[in-house]
Design goal:
By secondary structure, the protein is mainly alpha-helical. It has helices spanning about 10-20, 25-35, 50-70.
């Protein structure tokens, strides 16, 4: 197995390290997080009606969250 040396910021290293499980190498973390599917693989999985319903639900929940935050003064 060959290896490559890469440069990442301290912030990127910290985020990666926080996602690391016990005894897991950084290579294993990267492979686990990046998976084998691209987002393009999700294109077209919803019908037009399903997509509209999902969008409406997301917007409704977003507004409800904003109201809760405002009510709690966060």
């Amino acid at each position: 197995m060959s290896t490559k040396t890469i440069s990442i910021t301290d912030e990127a290293y910290g985020r990666l390290n926080n996602r690391k499980k016990d005894r897991e190498s950084f290579s294993e973390v990267i492979l686990r997080l990046t998976g084998k599917r691209s987002l393009a693989g999700f294109a077209g999985i919803f019908s037009g009606m399903e997509a509209k319903e999902l969008e409406a639900n997301v917007l409704e929940n977003r507004e409800a969250s904003k109201r809760r935050v405002k009510r709690l003064g966060i």
